[in-house]
Design brief:
Elements (H helix, E strand, L loop, with lengths): L1 H16 L8 E4 H10 L2 H6 L4 E4 L6 E4 L1 H18 L6 E9 L15 E10 L30 H11 L4 E6 L3 E9 L39 E2 L6
Helix pairs in contact: 4-5
Length: about 230
């Protein structure tokens, strides 16, 4: 399964390098999409004893993106959070709408985008050396002296490729000496998209295709993670 995933990612990299990888964005409701992704991590949250806290806005969020590609970004970032978290620590996912005018994130998204949805995933654990915060997004780069040496070093680079295909970006910040937060922006609207970047279908049906396999099917069903009204990340 891991080999097939790696092969697929390498094929996507090749498509991107050859200019054959298409965005195919469509109009989507983001909150149900995120809840579906989070639900797939309920079992992992229980087994590893990492409570997963989510803060979602009460208003409906609609954006234009490719759900199959964006799902891979959520999956990879959350899996890394579980992998590198301190024992029994909380993992948090924050969703906020930001105005990009005079925002510190202005240069990380297409200049035609006025508003964006900021996704932040925080986990307690080892911080990343300041001079490595960008290097972790290079293909096959792996940090030394981390408590887990698993992985291929391709996931974060793949995530950045996907977000830049969406005219946006993904990056990581240290939160003091307590842990790290990965952030990425989902543009609101479609004025920044070319006609050939849009999918013919709107509101396309989407089913979760990346489900972590972490426990036997005989395990009892888990409750949905609790959605909190507020959560401070930094």
């Amino acid at each position: 399964m891991k080999i097939m995933k790696l092969v697929n990612q390498l094929m996507d990299f090749r498509k991107h390098d050859e200019g054959r990888m298409e965005l195919l964005a469509s109009k989507q409701h983001l909150i149900p999409f995120i809840k579906e992704v989070i639900l797939a991590f309920s079992e992992l949250s229980r087994i590893q004893n990492h409570p997963l806290k989510i803060h979602l806005p009460e208003t409906e969020l609609i954006a234009w993106y490719n759900p199959q590609l964006l799902e891979k970004v959520f999956y990879n970032v959350l899996m890394n959070a579980f992998k590198y978290s301190n024992e029994e620590s909380v993992i948090s996912l924050n969703v906020d709408v930001i105005t990009l005018n005079k925002s510190p994130y202005r240069e990380r998204v297409d200049e035609r985008v006025k508003e964006a949805i900021l996704i932040s995933v925080f986990n307690e654990g080892d911080i990343i050396p300041e001079d490595k915060l960008e290097e972790v997004f290079e293909p096959f780069y792996r940090l030394k002296n981390t408590k887990s040496q698993q992985g291929t070093g391709i996931g974060l680079s793949f995530n950045r490729m996907i977000m830049r295909l969406h005219h946006s970006d993904i990056w990581v910040e240290n939160i003091g000496d307590t842990g790290v937060v990965f952030k990425f922006l989902i543009p609101i609207g479609k004025d920044h998209l070319r006609e050939d970047e849009l999918c013919d279908e709107t509101e396309q049906e989407h089913r979760l295709i990346l489900t972590p396999s972490v426990a036997p099917k005989t395990e009892p069903a888990m409750e949905r993670p609790k959605v909190e009204k507020s959560l401070e990340l930094c």
